[in-house]
Amino acid sequence: MEKAKEILELAKKYEMYTAENLSRVVKHKSLSLHEEGMVNELKSIMEEAGFDEVRIDKLGNVIGRIGNGSKLIVIDGHIDIVDLGNLDNWDFDPLGGEIKDGFVHGRGSVDQKGGPIAAVTAGKILKEIGFPEDVTLLVTGTVMEEDSDGLCWKYLVEEEKIKPDVVVVTEPTNLNIYRGHRGRMEIEVEFFGLSAHGSAPERGKNAIYMASKAALEIEKLNEHLAYDEFLGKGTVVVSEFVSSSPSLCAVSDYAKIHLDRRLTWGEDKELALNQIREIVKDMDAKVTLLQYKETSFTGLEYGMEKYYPTWKLEEDHPVIRKGIKTYEELFGEKPKVDKWTFSTNGVTINGLYGIPVIGFGPGNEVLAHAPNEKLPVEHLTKASAFYAMYVLNF
Asked: Residue 44's pLDDT is what?
C-alpha cells in the first residue's frame, strides 16, 4: 500500500505536466496517414521523460522503452485522429489544446492521445521510484488505427517481432477496466444487371432491384444473428448503396452495397460471408471481404483484410485480476469491469495473436469522434497512477 500511496502522490505532482503534454499533442492534426508531426512530438516527450530508448519504426509507430527485463509489458494507444467535422458544432478550437475548468480540450484528447500521454508519465514515475529489474516496458503510440484498427499491431507483431506478455490498451474506458468487444468486418456485395431502354424495362435486368431486395433481406438477418451475454448481439447494416447505368433513361446494369458487420462471440468471417452468400445465391452477385492497403507517412505501403476479430477475456483471467487488484490498491474501491462498444487494436493483439489485453483509459468513449471532445485532467492523473502500479504488480 505504501507503493500505491507514493505512486498516487507522484501522479498528482505531475498532473499539470501530463495535462500540458496532452495539450502539446492535441495541437497536431494527426489524421490517419498524416501523423508525422504528432509522432515527432510524442518521441520528444518520451525522451524528455527519460525513457531508455525511443524510436520510430518503418510504419511510423513510436516505441518508447524502459528497462530490459524478461517480462514484456506494452501500454498502447493510437495517436491518429478522425477529422474535425462541422466546426459550427464546436464551442472551442478543436486543435487549441486549451486546459480549462479541469479539462484538456480538443480533438483526440479522448480518442485517444490521453492514454499514451498518461503512459509516458507512468514511465517517468517508475523511473523515479525504481523500475523493476525483471520487466521491460514499451509505450507505443500507434498509427493508422482510425483507418484500419489493429493494422499497426499486425506490423508490430509480424515485422517488429514484439510479443508482449500483456498489452494495456488505453482507449477511453471512463477509468473502468474493459476485457473485450465485438469484432467487425467490411463486406462489399456487387450486383450485375443488364441495361435496356427505360421505356422497355422488361428487356433488361435491373441491378438496383437485385441490390434492394438483398438489402431488405440483410436487414432481416439481424433478427437471427448470434447473441453473447457479455458482448451482446451481432449486427449488420447496409452503410452505402451505389449504382450505375448507361443513362438515367436506362435500366441499371450495376449496383453495390457496403456492409458494416459487427461480430459477437462465436461469429467469424466465414460465417458472416456465407450468410450473405446465401441471401444472394440466386442473383448475379459477388460477395467480397474488402482489403485495406495504404501508404504510411513514412512511405511504407502496408495492409490487411478488413476482418477485425471478436475478442474477450474472462474476468478471472490473470491480467484482468491484476488490473482489479491494482485499481483497488490505488483507489480503495472495486472497479467496474465492462467492454467497449467500438473496436480497438485489441482485434489483432488478442483476436489474431492471442496476446492478453486489458483495457483501461482516461476519458468517456461517448465523446470519441464527437464535437466538443475534452478529457478530465483528473482522469490523466488516475490513469498515470494505474499504469505505473500495474507494471509493478505484473
From this structure: 98
Terminal Cα-to-Cα distance of the chain (whole angstroms): 15
- Cβ neighbours of residue 156 under 8 Å, at least 6 residues apart? 57, 61, 140, 142, 162
The catalytically annotated residue of 145, 171, 186, 267 is 145
What is the Cα–Cα distance from 139 to 150, expressed in whole angstroms? 16
Task: Flag whether pLDDT at 1 surpasses 90.
Answer: no
Contact 97, 27 (CB under 8 A): yes
Q: What is the mean pLDDT of the chain?
A: 98
Question: Among 256, 216, 209, 210, which Cα is nearest to 236's?
Answer: 216
Asked if residue 167 lies in contact with residue 347, where contact means CB atoms within 8 angstroms, the answer is no
* pLDDT single digits (tens) 51-99: 999 999 999 999 999 999 999 999 999 999 999 999 999 999 999 999 9
- C-alpha cell belonging to residue 266: 462465436
Task: Assess contact for 329 and 389: CB atoms under 8 A.
Answer: yes
- CA–CA separation, 80 and 130 (whole Å): 32
Q: Parallel, antiparallel, or unpaired: how do β-strands 374-376 and 103-105 relate?
A: antiparallel
Indicate the pLDDT class of residue 331, thresholds 50, 70 and 90: very high
- CATH of span 184-295: 3.30.70.360
Average pLDDT value for residue range 18-41:
98
pLDDT of residue 47: 98
Query: pLDDT per residue over 348-381, tens digit each?
Result: 999 999 999 999 999 999 999 999 999 999 999 9
- Distance, CA of 343 to CA of 38 (rounded, Å): 22
**Which residues contact residue 3 at a Cβ distance below 8 angstroms, ignoring those fewer than 6 apart?**
129, 389, 392
**Number of neighbours of residue 202 by Cβ within 10 angstroms:** 7
CATH number of this structure's domain 2-181+310-393, picked from the four choices 3.10.20.600, 2.30.180.10, 3.40.630.10, 1.20.140.10: 3.40.630.10
The domain locations on the chain are 2-181+310-393, 184-295
> How confident is the model at residue 127, as a pLDDT?
97
In the numeric block, which cell numbers belong to residue 321?
485480476
Q: Specify whether 128 is catalytic.
A: no
For 98, what's the count of Cα atoms within 13 Å in the CB-facing half-sphere? Answer: 10
Query: Pick the catalytic residue: 80, 111, 149, 228?
Result: 80
